[in-house]
Design brief:
The protein is of the alpha+beta class. Among the domains are: 2-100, no CATH class; 177-255, Alpha-Beta Plaits (2-Layer Sandwich). The chain is built from seven helices and eight strands; from the N terminus they run H-H-H-H-H-E-E-E-E-E-E-H-E-E-H. The longest helix is centred in the N-terminal third of the chain and has 30 residues, at 49-78. It starts with a helix and ends in a 15-residue tail after the last helix.
Length: 270
Amino acid sequence: MLEDNSMSQIFRQPDWTMALEVGAVVVIATLLIAATQRALPWIGNRLHGRRRLFVLALVPVLRLLIIVVAFATIVPLVINPSVQNMVALLGTVGLAIGFALKDLVSSLIAGVVAVGEMPYRNGDWIKIDGIYGEVRYVGMRTVQVVTPTDDVVSIPHSRLWNTPIHNSNDGSPRLQCVADFYLHPEHDAAEVKQILSDVALSSAFLHFGQPVTVIVHEKPWGTWYRLKAYPVDARQQFRFVTDLTVRGKAALLGLGVTFAMAPTAESVTV
């Protein structure tokens, strides 16, 4: 009996007015979230560069804001507004959820952290546990990544706690691309370096505002060249690398250079 009285002191007496008000808040919040998740990507994908990424990054921020405002609006409608009642209810609910849904709560908290710290945002190209792709959707529990093979992979935000996250462009429209060439050591390195630079500078995908770099590594099996440059848009990275590789190989063959055949050339890392 005492427990029933304490609960009645916390919650308001339910009636049709309360139900309609709570339902209206839920419906409005749902419509606003749906409109945000449709309108902003539609607008962002018609923009370019930093403006596109800024608009896409607003999606999870606005969704979280709408949920917080809706929750803050509903709570006074169903609970007698007092500090004691609020603390008691939120403490009880939080404790119950924490024990029952530890993994889910961990992902949700990590999702809030992801929205605040932005280790990744819509439009970023990230790599987590060997999964590489473009961030298309940052939800409350997971981040959805579209891989180069058009697979959609959902990764829980809880990976934030213990997994390195590689972000290739980190909110910028610029993403560095690398084309590798492995050559027999008997050649003119200065001439090869210049030819590879010219290949990048003549690419239709090149963004001229960023540097073109050729890194040379001498290995026991041959000489390893890394041609580094930036495409106009991060989404062009695979076409850009293909263009650099195809035209670079043709230019080197025209120079009479022999390519290295050592199997270790395929597995070498920097």
